Amino acid sequence: MPAWFPWASLVAAVLAVGTALLVRGRLYATFAGVLLTVHTLISLAMAPLFERVFPLFLVLQAAVYIHIALLAVPRLRPVWYRALISVPASYFAAASFLALPWAILKALGFYPYGFFVPYLLALVGVIQSLRHTFEEVDIHLDDQHHPQLRRGKTGKPHNITSPNLQNRPLRVVQITDPHLGPFMSEDRLRQIAERAVAAKPDLVFLTGDFLTMESHEARASLARALSPLSALPGRVFACRGNHDHEAPDTVAGALEDIGATLLIDEERLVQTAAGPVQILGLDFHFRNRAERTLNAFKKHPRLPGTLRLVLLHDPGVFRHVPNGHADLVFQATPTADNSDY
C-alpha cells in the first residue's frame, strides 16, 4: 500500500463531508461523516491485505467518496454513473462495514484469516439487489393453509361468515421496497408495475420505501415508473416506509399522480368482485410504535362480516396488531430488497 493512500483517503473523506454540509445541510453531512469515518478506518486497516489487487481497491475507495459527495445533489443518475460509481461504491462501503471484525483483528496485530469473506458476502448482496423476486401464493383463511404459511403467534382465527363474500378468491398483488435509485431504475420499476397490472388483481398494495437518497426529489420519475398502475383506478393502496419520511411530499405526490390511495393510519372500504374488503394502512412510526398501532385500530374498528386487510412496512409492528382485528397483514419482509413482488 503506498504511503500516500491513507492521507489521500482522509482528505477525500473530509472533502466529501464538507460538500455534504455546504450543499445538502447538517443532517446529511452528519450521516456522511459517520459513514465515511467508519468506512475509512476499516478500509485503511484492510488495504494491506489487498496488495495484489490494490488498483481495484483504490478505484473502489475513490468511488465511495465520489458517491457520497455527489449525493449532496439528490437526483437519479444515468446508467453509466450507476455502473461505475453508485453500485461499486455501495458494494465497497457495505463490504467495509461487514469487515469490521477482521479490521479489529488486524489492528490488534493478528492475521485476519478469511478477510475476503465480507467482500464476497457484499457481492452476493449486490447481485440480489439487482434482481427482484416474484411469488404467487394461495392463502386459505380459517381453512387449510398453504404449507409454507402459518398464522402469527399473536393472531387468533377469525371466521368469515358474511354472505357478502363471494365464492371466489380475492386476488392481491403486493409490491414492497422498490427503492427507486441505483439498484432500481425507472424502467425496471415500470416493468414490475406492468407485470402487476397484467396479473389482473382485485387490489394492489404498495408497502413502502419508494425512495433512496438519489430520488428524494424525483416525483415525476416515481410517478412514471408506477404509471401502469393507473389502469387500476380505486384498486391501488399504499402505506409509507421509513425512507418515505425523508421526502414525504415526493411520495404522496407521485402516488396522487397515478391515482393510488396513500393510507396514513387510515382505512378504506372497497367493494371487490370477491366481496367487501376493509383496508387499514399503518404509517411507519419511529417512536411509540405499539401505542400508535393500537390507536389506529381503535380509531378504525373492523366492520362485521367484512374481510379486514392491514398494510404496514415494519415487520416488527406485526406483534402489536390486536388479536382478531386483521384477517391478513401485508408487510415488507425483513430481507426485502429492491422490490419483492
Descriptive notes:
The protein is an alpha/beta fold and 341 residues long. The protein folds into 2 domains: 4-129, no CATH class; 172-331, Purple Acid Phosphatase, chain A, domain 2. It has helices spanning 4-23, 26-46, 54-70, 79-98, 100-107, 117-129, 186-198, 219-226, 248-257, 289-299, and strands spanning 172-175, 203-207, 236-239, 261-262, 266-272, 275-281, 307-312, 328-331. The strands form 2 sheets. The protein has a 4-stranded parallel sheet, with helices on one face. A 4-stranded mixed sheet has the order 5-6-7-8, with no helix packed on it. Strand 1 (172-175), helix 7 and strand 2 form a beta-alpha-beta unit. Helix 2 (26-46) crosses helix 5 and helix 8 (219-226) packs parallel to helix 9. The longest helix is centred in the N-terminal third of the chain and has 21 residues, at 26-46. It is elongated. The protein starts with a helix and ends in a 10-residue tail after the last strand. The model is unreliable at 146-165 (pLDDT under 50).
Provide the descriptors you would attach to this structure in a database record.
341 residues, alpha/beta, Purple Acid Phosphatase, chain A, domain 2, 2 domains, 4-stranded parallel β-sheet, 4-stranded mixed β-sheet, 8 strands, 41% helix, 11% strand
Oligomeric form: single chain
Strand segment tally: 8
| Helix count from the secondary structure assignment | 10
- The CATH architecture of the largest domain is 4-Layer Sandwich
Supply the helix-strand structural class.
Answer: alpha/beta
- What is the residue-mean pLDDT, rounded to a whole number? 88
